[in-house]
Amino acid sequence: MTNPRDFHDDPFVRNRSTPRLVVFSGAGISAESGISTFRDANGLWEQHNIDDVCNIQTFDENYDLVHKFYNQRRVQLGTVKPNIAHETVAMWQKKYGADRVSIITANVDDLFERAGAEKVTHIHGKLTEMIVRYGEDAEHVEDIGYNAFDIEQWKLHNVRAKPNVVFFNECFRYDAERNKVPIYDHMMDVLRTLTHEDTVMVIGTSETVVPIWYYIEARPCRTVWVNPENSKHGQYDTSFIGSACRHILNIDEYLVKERME
Ligand code: APR
């Protein structure tokens, strides 16, 4: 396999010249679009056992159940829309450029892209993609949009598939160039370059799976937290306690413009 780091040819990582902004988001940013988070009351992990639907070690025995779970989420994704938080973050990247605004998300929805974002790093994969293996051929990634995977039909044609979503106990993901890369390497490359002029904005994550505070606390950048709950791990420089949609326009007006323009 080619050195996966070769694929970190990211203009943001190379750009050292101007104040930059990293937006790291979790399920909370999509909550107001109607997509369930994982660990809030009545969240996905309250309704489903993680080990039944998101654990690579039990995938084979739960093959049909897993596809039914992701089919439901994929079809629902086709019925919801980006909210003002996705739109504002996408606007930042379009306005300031992908070499100055890096969008990194643990979400598998495509709402940033549908809001117009040009470059999004999905560290946990994309719900609209399937990793497919025809018979003994090598696996590859296919875009299946918001369609339900037809388990029986694909079995008839000796096709094996897995949602392009990173399951627990997996170490690699498929990146936007559809290369298999270590899950968090690119995110670490981005965070490693941060200087005192840069800002990291963390929106809508419980920090349970990606303890983002521990990756940025030693960096000299400014840190911003957006969540109805306080961070469990760290003291961010600025915290907006409340929903992303409620605060995002103020953040644009009084924090992003002031720093980026
Ligand atoms: N605006 C901002 N934040 C919100 C909103 C909102 N409207 N609603 C909820 N939140 C916050 C919650 O307070 C919580 O801190 O979003 C966070 C959601 O946390 P989780 O459900 O744990 O989602 P996330 O942090 O993205 O989970 C990370 O865990 O199971 C894995 O792969 C899955 O990528 C996921 C990872």
Overall description:
With 261 residues, this protein is of the alpha/beta class. Helices cover 32% and strands 21% of the residues. The chain is built from eleven helices and eleven strands. Strands 3-2-1-9-10-11 form a six-stranded parallel β-sheet, with helices on both faces. Strands 5-4-6 form a three-stranded antiparallel β-sheet. A two-stranded antiparallel ribbon has the order 7-8. Helix 6 packs parallel to helix 11. The longest helix is centred in the C-terminal third of the chain and has 17 residues. The chain is globular and about 60 Å long. The site of adenosine-5-diphosphoribose (APR) has 25 residues, from helix 2 and strand 10.
> Ions, cofactors, ligands: which are bound?
adenosine-5-diphosphoribose
Assign a percent range to the helix content: 25-40%
Spell out the helices and strands N to C: HEHHHHHEHEEEHEEEHEHEEH
Major beta sheet summary: 6 strands, parallel
Kindly provide the radius of gyration, computed on alpha-carbon positions and rounded to a whole number of angstroms: 18 Å
Comma- or semicolon-separated keywords:
261 residues, alpha/beta, six-stranded parallel sheet, disordered N terminus, binds adenosine-5-diphosphoribose
